[in-house]
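Page 42, continued from yesterday. The earlier attempt failed because a stray header line got pasted into the input along with the sequence. Redoing it now with the clean sequence only.
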Amino acid sequence: MNSDTPVNWFSIDIAGNVESNYKPDGQGTNYNKQRVGVQ
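This time it went through. Structure tokens are written below.
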């Protein structure tokens, strides 16, 4: 079965700085996105 799936992520460094000021508990959509193939 071959398919693909979306992967969404954001980064936080050791000091607690969130990438692009993304707020995971809010309505933010400025997270990283990529579709990856699954084989």
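Notes: The chain is about 0% helix and 35% strand.
Reminder to self: strip header lines before submitting.
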